[in-house]
Design goal:
The protein is mainly alpha-helical. It is built from 6 helices and no strands. The longest helix has 30 residues. Pfam families: Mntp.
Amino acid sequence: MSELVGEILTLAIMAFALGMDAFSVGLGMGMYKLPLRRIFNIGLMIGLFHVWMPLVGLIAGKYLSEKFGTFATFIGGLLLLVLGVQMVWSTFKKGDEKIITPIGLGLLLFALSVSLDSFSVGLTLGIYGAKTVMVILCFGIVATVQTWAGLLLGRKVRGWLGAYSEALGGAILLGFGLKLLIPFW
């Protein structure tokens, strides 16, 4: 019994650590003018990706090397850079159109960029034989809650900062994307 509790605690801590990027990126993305329904949908989508990506990683972990996990982190960093540049750029443009918005394909790219690191962790957990259901439940629930918290907090900050909030949100995404890419330089 204590072994099961220890494993759940370990997975919860891991899920919290992985969900921090969802919180951080959610904080930046929350500075868009997002209605509560969209915030709800974004949180669910990221939660689903935090279920799907480690599941694929767990399955692939038995067959693939560590290089693929590193590649996933690199792609996630690039996607966050693109989203961040787009948000900062749109602050200085006169029009209100955005290249990427958290709707449709933009939401899928956003969720994918935030969830790629959970693929890498799933890869590692697959090699070590972790319990699949516990991993995906912990990762999915924690990422969803942390995304909602980041988006709602970002929404509050947007009200305080006005027109500059989107630039700040973009800077947060840029910073997080650079953090993921620094090991590659």
